[in-house]
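Entry 14. Structure prediction run on the chain below.
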Amino acid sequence: MKAVGAGVVPAAALLLALTSGAALAAAVSAPGASAAAAGNTVSANAAAPAAATGTQVSAGPIEKVTERGPVKVTVTLDPSAPMIGDTITLSVEVVAEDGIELLMPEFGQSLDRFAIREFVPKESIDAGGRTVSLQRYTLEPPLSGPQSIPPLLIEFIDRRPGQRAAPEGEDTYEMITDRIAFEVGSIVPQGAGNDLKPERGPLAPLREHGPLWPWLLAAAALGAAAVPLVWRRLAAARAARLRRSAWDIARARLDALVAKPRPAGGDTIDAFFVELSAIIRSYLERRFELRAPELTTEEFLAVASTSPDLTGEHRSFLRDFLRRADMVKFARFVPSPADVESALAAASRFLDETRENAATVAATTTQEDPSHA
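Output returned:
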């Protein structure tokens, strides 16, 4: 019995050894399975730091609307939660009723803290006759954390009949948009601050200098001397904006009129010339600051003749153009199709010739032609 028991034990051990060897051979013959298992473990470990970085997901745009009477301003920021290094789009859309003269914000107004990558201005007339002015900026925030788009200033003048052009004692109506606050996300993983170098100690105190009042007095004197120059430059810039705005509005209205079907006669041709003459008169009032909306044609021509920016040729054009329009409106004169096209071409040419400073053109003409002496 003992001999049999001793023989059984080695046989069991031999069987166990053979079984282990088979398992080892199976593992060696199938290396892909082990690699796959190892790969799954690495992927899981690599995903853990990505989940701990705290990546911020961009949300939709922020929109702020401001209204005052006939003007509506919509400021849009997209996206509302960018990451550092991303660009953001700031859109300023102003919609004004017909007869409203808009003064859009100057380029880069209140945006000096951002890097301006692109600027696209645009102006059009919608189907309702309203002026739609758009300024679109592509900006890059300088750093992460809380940021904001400061309030923007939009001005307008009410040229509609029977309305006050501006508040008493003021040149324009003013609109201030709301401040837009947003957060710029950081790409630094959470907890990375623990690996940064410790903060340095307090800075050494600054060396003491002499009294400050002489510097303040000199700065005040320089500021007082610069005020007239700055005022003149601001006035010149505002006048240039008014001229550009007047031409843009008149050109858009004239292009819209040219795109319409030509009048067949009767009331349609009357309405056509009423609109055409209104475009030219409104342009003159805005471009040359002629405050004469309720005057007759003769009275209006008398006021226009006092403007130093209009040449003699331009005054002759206005006299013939407005009187011909009056003949259509009041004397029932029916112009031919050729007359209609001629009037449109003349109006377009007048707008283009007076877009810049006509006084400079007049001075040049006088120097070149001795007969003006």
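Residues 213-259 form the longest helix (47 residues).
Filed with the rest of this week's runs.
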